[in-house]
Design goal:
The protein is an alpha/beta fold. The protein contains 5 helices and 4 strands.
Length: 151
């Protein structure tokens, strides 16, 4: 059985969600592992999956960061996720998937699918900024300062 100390020191689980789990949420998952892996475990998921991660997202993240999302990630349903502490909605512009959590925020990002490379790079750079900011808030205890004894 897990002691209260072990339970309170476990890493937070952060889910990046959007409807199709093919672009923004996948980029956030990849960048969370790259820039924020010391502070939380990042996941992505959706409710209506595309068959693959958006090829432009795969290409641009590889060019910008050297991360190969195609070999390490796949579209996932929210039902495949573990118990989540923090939900980040990517800016669904429709009904975002519901996922129970202790904290939720919406980043309100425009879907870059089908736009030019410069616009897509700008959205990816914004995701990086937001992931880094989230990691800083988690590290500082500013996001979830009190730990629930039930976690």
């Amino acid at each position: 059985m897990e002691s209260g100390l072990e339970r309170s020191n476990r890493r937070l689980k952060v889910a990046f969600v959007c409807v199709h789990n093919s672009y923004r949420s996948q980029v956030a998952e990849a960048l969370a592992g790259w820039f924020a892996g010391a502070w939380f475990d990042g996941y992505s998921a959706g409710t209506e999956l595309k068959p693959e991660i958006n090829p432009d997202a795969v290409r641009l993240v590889r060019e910008m960061y050297g991360i190969d999302m195609a070999s390490s990630q796949r579209p996932k349903l929210v039902t495949e996720l573990p118990r989540i502490d923090v939900v980040v909605k990517m800016g669904c512009e429709v009904a975002c998937p519901y996922l129970p959590s202790r904290y939720e925020e919406d980043w309100g990002l425009t879907d870059p699918t089908g736009r030019g490379d410069d616009e897509q790079r700008a959205v990816i750079a914004e995701i990086e900024r937001l992931v880094r900011d989230l990691a800083q808030r988690i590290a500082a205890g500013a996001l979830l300062p009190e730990r629930s004894p039930n976690l």
